[in-house]
Design goal:
This is Tat pathway signal sequence domain protein. By secondary structure, the protein is α+β, with helices and mostly antiparallel strands. The protein is 26% helix and 26% strand. The protein is built from 21 helices and 37 strands. Helix 15 crosses helix 17.
Length: 915
């Protein structure tokens, strides 16, 4: 297994042996800095530390979330942050969630770059320290100006210049920050290339200040890409600034709204997608420097006009200064055989690093446009970082997940002239155009019966016109530094590391556990007895397996990175990447939750980063954000948007909540807020239209909605909006209460399965006769977690009773089911995954028999039972493309449910584990 990072070991050691207090408790206003005037409430300080070492001090700052037990701190409480030795650290605080009694549930905290000087901190109620340099924001009719105390950025409210200028003192380091889109209207599907490109510029429709200091400022810019009268490809860009920082961060999102028709070569094909800045070049050509990162700490280190390696030597001190990026001595002091011939030494103004795959990049340069390119090196995986400028200042720039989300590219143009142009290409124009057309011609599946036949052979739920990318999105993260001089080699390495792995502060696993958030369904890692230790080893095995498969199978790419595969092909020793619904997983059976719960209880940085990438992907690429299916996600398939099952169970906010509350990430917050009205989507699309046996037409006042995968997704969005006090919080709370009450009022409660929902009242119609409508999938997409959060939040005893009955009877015998509900539940699956419902009911009711059944179903029903062999079979060619290993018993459905059942059973009935 891969080693656990040192900081994760420190965090784990800090919580080892801590008493676990499992609580059944659950619970934004405008973000602002706490003013320190509120009265501090009770509560112990929370320990906070860095997830990793890399990049500390180079990044602008860090934002992290902390949970609080209900009633611990009233709204308005101010918090102070200090290092272990008691040194106060300036911090900005704002609430991100509230408990029903109005007390703080989650708070977000921002620190500037000075916090990088310590490893561990404590956070407690108190007056925050004042930053020596504050970030300030000023507004005018057409501009927003942000000043960190070190750099000043002028941001446009209209036009095409998102960032008009970035200055350091009186020196402009960069200007004209803008978005670039290259469109190719026709693909070259043959040997004769005729396609033409056209350039679109990002046009601003509005800019908003979301936070204005004193430690953190956030500006959001929205718009579309424009050429002439056409506007398309909406973008949303957020710029983050921290007090005392010389850098800023950009979070860039595009939503695809073009046309690509299967079988046709004409359409809206993205040929290049980038962020571009102009960098003034003030210094002599020999005092201008290029730095481009390769792998790890490798760098191309050059001057625009090199004076090393010449036939004549200018002097050792001159050569040494140029390599270090320092200002050269007056040329009059050089060997004059060099000085008098400077005009004959070429200046290299253009550089390109192209990462067209996850495994290789090429680097080349030329003197200027119209002249030939010269190879300058290459390698495997570039960090996506560079610098252009001179001894009087310059711009460092970086694109996170550069090789992970290939094809990507970095361009420097014109560095030998008065202005250099830097472009960070999120999609490299040297790659093939972005082809999002559906991958087959339908195979004659025109009718529902034909489509069901197709489902029965490839597991793909196909329907004409449904495999469209229209409305999917992708978010990228970039960083920029306005340097007062060419940075030292060590400074560049730190900046590059901060791009690759942005420093992240995090509360301890003990703090996350003791607050009782997320339903209290996790507890710190516990190896106190052999039975528990064995399960912990198995959980570690599974995470390591998927982390290794990501690398072995190259699950990378702009649209793919962050997802994992669904099912393995034992014959090909390959995941079924090309077989219908067995390919990309798209959150099937909640691997997102497994990973987040695994992090919450362990504090492991590697798990956090894996889950972070999945959250970014599944919330953006697997969900529609525009069009008639906005608010719905797509079931697993060969392409992330290919399957015709568009459902709440994929778009559900339950998968985004942990990342949002741990980081206060505004983009993920947007995604969850956008789902508040997603009950309206049931008017547009019936999720079970192909298998209905009775006539049904969607009706605003009588929509068929299931209590499992449908309602759990709606409830997650409503809960999040309510506890964040979002703009629609009142509606969200009312919807929660009305749907919970009318589910409980059904003759068979949750076992009823579904009912007709009224969009205007937010209530389910109460059926007149009892029905048994149980599916093994109903509670496997966040329903377990939602009910665990909602039951203590909203006092509805009938709802709690209905849920506990569902938990008690799913894994009961058919005789017991029939005795309680009039008939048994039919043929069921996923008993191991449902063992956590036995555990929940056992903990709620104090039922030792249910606790015993939870462990019996966990160990001996289906899934990874006691018979599971936890081995690794080595694989080499010619059996597989790349050497590695596999385990034929591993499947993602089983992994996700085993992981969740193991974590929740240990938290709820760990003391009842068979020894």
């Amino acid at each position: 297994m891969s080693p656990i990072p040192r900081r994760s070991l420190l965090k784990a050691a800090a919580v080892a042996g801590a008493a676990t207090q499992v609580g059944w408790v659950l619970g934004q206003e405008d973000a602002h800095a706490a003013d320190g005037r509120a009265t501090a409430g009770p509560g112990d300080p929370v320990r906070v530390s860095w997830l990793e070492d890399g990049g500390l001090g180079a990044a602008a700052g860090s934002t992290f979330g902390v949970p609080w037990r209900q009633g611990a701190h009233p709204a308005g409480t101010a918090f102070a942050l200090a290092t272990e030795d008691g040194t106060a650290v300036p911090v900005q605080t704002w609430p991100t969630a509230y408990w029903p009694d109005g007390s703080l549930k989650w708070t977000a905290h921002a620190v500037g770059p000075t916090a990088a000087g310590a490893d561990r901190f404590t956070l407690a109620p108190g007056t925050p320290a004042t930053a020596a340099k504050k970030v300030t924001v000023s507004r005018s009719q057409r501009k927003i100006t942000v000043d960190t105390g070190v750099i000043k950025a002028v941001i446009g409210k209209d036009g095409t210049r998102l960032v008009e200028s970035v200055s350091r003192g009186a020196t402009k380091i960069a200007t004209d920050g803008r978005l670039v889109l290259l469109r190719q209207g026709e693909l070259d599907d043959g040997e004769h290339a005729t396609a033409k490109w056209e350039r679109f510029d990002g046009e601003i429709s509005g800019a908003t200040v979301e936070q204005d200091g004193p430690v953190r400022a956030v500006v959001r810019i929205d718009g579309k890409h424009r050429k002439g009268s056409r506007r398309w490809l909406p973008f949303s860009v957020r710029l983050y600034f921290y007090a005392g920082a010389e850098s800023f961060r950009m979070v860039h999102t595009i939503t695809y709204d073009g046309e690509q028709t299967p079988g046709r070569t004409k359409g809206d094909f993205i040929r290049g997608l980038g962020v571009r800045f102009t960098v003034p070049m003030r210094d002599a050509a020999y005092d201008r420097h290029i730095r481009i990162a390769g792998e790890d700490k490798g760098f191309l280190t050059e001057a625009v006009q090199g004076i090393t390696g010449l036939r004549r030597d200018p002097g050792a001190n001159v050569r040494t200064a140029q390599v270090k990026g320092e200002k050269l001595p007056d040329p009059a002091t050089w060997d004059q055989r060099v000085t008098t011939r400077l005009k004959y030494i070429p200046t290299w103004g253009d550089y390109t690093l192209a990462q067209l795959s996850s495994d290789g990049f090429t680097l080349r340069k030329r003197t200027k446009a119209g002249h030939g390119w010269i190879p300058a090196g290459g390698g495997g995986r570039a960090n996506g970082f560079g610098y252009v400028g001179g001894v009087s200042g310059g711009l460092s720039f970086g694109l996170r997940d550069f090789w992970h989300k290939h094809p990507a590219q970095l361009d420097i143009r014109g560095a030998a002239g008065d202005e250099a142009e830097v472009t960070l290409w999120l999609w490299s124009p040297e790659a093939q155009p972005m082809d999002l057309r559906f991958y087959h011609d339908g195979l004659g599946q025109e009718t529902f019966p034909e489509q069901i036949e197709g489902l029965n052979i490839t597991y793909e739920d196909y329907e004409p016109g449904f495999g469209t990318p229209y409305g999917i999105a992708r978010t990228s993260e970039l960083m920029f530094w306005a340097n007062g001089a060419t940075p030292t080699a060590d400074a560049l390495v730190a900046q590059s590391a901060a791009v690759h792995t942005p420093p992240q502060l995090a509360a301890s696993a003990e703090a996350l556990t003791s607050a009782g958030v997320f339903g209290g369904l996790f507890a710190p890692v516990d190896r106190s007895v052999p039975a528990k230790a064995k399960i912990e080893d198995q959980l570690d095995y599974l995470f390591t397996y998927y982390k290794d498969q990501l690398e072995q199978r190259r699950w990378y790419g702009f649209w793919d990175y962050g997802d994992i595969m669904h099912t393995y092909d034992e014959d090909r020793r390959q995941w079924r990447y090309d077989v219908g619904g067995y390919a990309w997983d798209n959150s099937e059976l909640s691997p997102d939750l497994w990973l987040w719960f695994a992090y919450l209880r362990s504090g492991r940085a590697d798990i956090f980063r894996f889950a972070e990438a999945m959250t970014r992907h599944t919330g953006e690429v697997d969900v529609y954000h525009l069009g008639k299916w906005a608010g719905l996600g797509t079931r697993h398939g060969v392409q992330h948007y290919a399957d015709s099952a568009k459902q709440q169970r994929i778009s559900t906010a339950v998968y985004r909540r942990p990342y949002y509350y741990l980081t206060a990430d505004e983009r993920v917050g947007d995604l969850m807020h956008s789902l508040v009205d997603s009950d309206e989507t049931f008017l547009v699309l019936d999720p079970i239209r192909k298998i209905r046996t009775e006539p049904y037409e969607p009706d605003r006042n009588a929509l068929s909605i299931g209590f499992g995968t449908d309602w759990s997704g709606l409830a997650a969005a409503w809960l999040t909006e309510w506890e964040r006090r979002g703009p629609k919080a009142a509606k969200a709370e009312a919807r929660l209460r009305s749907t919970m009450a009318t589910i409980a009022a059904q003759p068979n409660g949750f076992v009823q399965g579904s009912a007709l929902y009224d969009l205007d009242t937010g209530k389910f119609a109460v059926e007149s006769r009892p029905v048994v409508g149980v599916s093994h999938l109903s509670s496997m997409f966040g329903l377990v977690e939602m009910c665990a959060e909602l039951i203590p939040l909203i006092d509805l005893p009938a709802f709690k009773a209905a849920w506990l009955d569902y938990c008690r009877y799913f894994n009961a015998s058919r005789t017991e089911q029939a005795a309680r509900y009039g008939s048994h539940f039919g043929t069921l699956l996923l008993f191991q995954g449902h063992s956590r419902q036995d555990a929940y009911a056992a903990a709620q009711l104090g039922d030792t028999a249910l606790a015993a059944r939870a462990w019996e179903k966990f160990y001996s029903s289906d899934g990874y039972t006691r018979a599971m062999v936890w081995n690794k079979t080595p694989l080499t060619g010619p059996t597989v493309l790349e050497p590695g290993y596999d385990n034929l018993e591993i499947s993602t459905n089983t992994t996700a449910l085993f992981g969740l059942a193991a974590i929740q059973n240990l938290a709820l009935v760990g003391n009842s584990i068979p020894r």
